[in-house]
Amino acid sequence: MRQAWLTAALGLGMLGCAVRYPKIIAVREEQFRSHDAAVALPLTVETRGEVSHFLEFGGNRLGRNAVPDEQGETHRQALDALGVAANLAVRSDLATADFCAMAAPLCAAAPLFQKRVAITQVIDARNRAPEVPEPIGVCDDEYCWVFHHENQRLTQLVVMRSTQRAKP
Amino acid sequence: MSLHGDLLGRLQELAQVQLVARLKDDRLNFPQAGELHVFIPDIHLITAARRVEGRYQYGSNHLDLLEAVVRGLREFRLAAAPGGEVVVYQIGDLFDLWRQVDGLDPNASAASAIQNDHASLLKALRDPDLNTQFLLGNHDYDLYRFPNFDAWQRSFVLAPSVMLLHGDVFDWVEKLPDEVQNLVLFLFHANQAGTAALDKMRPVNRKSRGGRKFRDFIQNQAPAPTGRWRDAEVEGENWNVQVEGVASAAMLLYLKEARAKCAEANQKFGSHLNAAVIGHTHHARIAVHDTPEEFFALLDCGAWIENCNTVDDPTPRANAQIAALGANEARIYQLSPRE
Questions:
Q1: Which of B20, B127, B167, B277 could pair covalently with B332 via S-S, beta carbons 3.0-4.6 A apart?
Q2: What are A5-32's pLDDT values in tens digits?
Q3: pTM for the complete prediction?
Q4: What is the DSSP letter of A75?
């Protein structure tokens, strides 16, 4: 028993000392992105429809079959929230991994984003260099929502099928 | 007109420029007239909100001017090509991650927060047309963990004779000799793809912080003495060069260490390094070891944080220095906003 405790303590200690690397989001191929270029926020009827269509087809823009969206209701709330300018304020100057600390109004209106990790390392190999300001990404169980921002406002969005999807 | 002259002209369009120091000597063994290497030293950016929250009594100097200078350097670089090559370096401690956060959240990118808060300056510095070469400093060493800062290096060799590094490793030489068995090897290996070497030395870097909060200052509580400045336009020979054996110890800081480590590298790798370019100390100066047997130069580029003064005037002046090296000539300029 004592040995087990010692092993556990040693393991935790090593975990604490290990260098941790941040989460990243890799920009997906064309068919797994809602748009080629990010769309402006707040969403309009047209752009909301495009994101919605993408989600209805399971995150496959070129897909031919609609797929049941198990997060349909929370996605609908998120799209509603992203159509309202007042929800787009962001504290991009906070050094935090808590997405809701950055985007409090959006989180209040869209439970989908609550208790999610903010990911600032969004890798887009189409660019000549990393973007400045860096986009802020947040992944739900199936999708990654990548927000561009400027002057403390979320200004553009692209949604991508996550590379780490929930297992059945 | 030389590239040094062209750079000075560009800077004078944007700022009041004074010459802090100038060394022109063929023994630099860096004769390339068609190249100019421009060094932007420590800036130590933190967010405005953090500066208030952390009750920091000081901040980075003249950021609007710095941004204008960086944009000017882009134009200068483009105009010089293809006949001339201008290489711009930011030589470490661009970000001050140590002052930005108190604790460690492995997923939180303090650098992203700072970058977002200074977006226009960072856009200018990271413009692909400028192609700034970045060094990791001690206050932003952890950038290496973040893919968006993958291009950052620990050192550069400017062939054939110049070693460029942040300079913090010379603190290690003094304070942490047991942990740094082979500093020269580390400097070269730290630039390899992958992060193993940087991971290995991360605890040493963290230890060098020594639990300090840097509430009132980072390097220099009092203004750094920089000798006597002069009008940058006046041509002439060496100016304000600190010679070992004559100058005070403070003006020669890290000359001995840099010379020893370059000699070690020369012995190990067959290189011919006889000059080092550093930042880190926030103390702009050129220092030389000059004997019949050996010549070695240290170009300390200064900073854009904390203060300096001159022999003529003890009034604190905001550090805002740019250094340049090419055609066997090194210069350091002090910039200030036009009145």
A1: B20
A2: 655 555 544 445 577 788 999 999 999 9
A3: 0.93
A4: H
Please give the Cα distance from B51 to B151 (Å, whole number): 27
- Report the alpha-carbon distance of residue B144 to residue B171 in Å, rounded: 20
Among residues B14, B22, B110, which one has the least CA distance to residue B299? B22
Q: Residues 6 or more apart from B293 whose CB is under 8 A from it?
A: none
Residue-wise pLDDT tens digits, A33-51:
999 999 999 999 999 999 9
The DSSP symbol for B93 reads -
Distance CA A153, CA A151 (A): 6
CB B86 within 8 A of CB B39: no
DSSP secondary structure letter of residue B249: G
Length of chain B, please? 339
Comparison of pLDDT for B197 and A33, the residue scoring more: A33
- What strands, in cross-sheet order, belong to the sheet with B230-231? B133-134, B85-90, B35-40, B321-326, B329-337, B15-24, B230-231
Q: To 10 degrees, what angle do helices B3-14 and B63-80 make?
A: 140
Q: Which of B233, B214, B62 is nearest to B138 (CA)?
A: B214
Long-range contacts of A141-144 (CB under 8 A, 24+ apart): A141/A71, A141/A165, A141/A166, A142/A59, A142/A71, A142/A166, A143/A55, A143/A59, A144/A25, A144/A119
Q: What is the ipTM of this complex?
A: 0.88
The whole-angstrom separation of Cα A113 and Cα A104 is: 10
- Comparing CB atoms, the residue among A95, A134, A149 nearest residue B110 is A95
How many whole angstroms separate alpha carbon A143 and alpha carbon B68?
40
A93 to B146: CB separation less than 8 angstroms, yes or no: no
Distance from the B200 Cα atom to the nearest Cα atom in chain A, whole angstroms? 9
- Tell me the two tokens of residue B233: 């336009």
Å between A65 CA and nearest CA of chain B = 36
3-class DSSP state for residue B2?
coil
Instruction: Please tell me the distance from the alpha carbon of residue A117 to that of residue A24, in angstroms, as a whole number.
Output: 11
- Tell me if residue A132 falls in helix, strand or coil: coil
Lowest-confidence segment of A14-23, B67-76, B181-190, B276-285 by average pLDDT: B181-190
Q: Is B104 exposed, middle or buried (0-12, 13-18, 19+ CB in 10 A)?
A: exposed
> Are B89 and B133 a contacting pair, CB within 8 Å?
yes
- Among B79, B89, B20, B85, which residue's Cα sits nearest to residue B330? B20
CA distances to B85, B89, B300, B326, B328 from B32, rounded to whole Å, are: 10, 17, 21, 6, 7
Residues of chain A numbered 67-126 and touching chain B (CB < 8 Å): 92-97, 117-121, 123
With residue A78 as reference, give the H or E element that holds it: helix A72-81
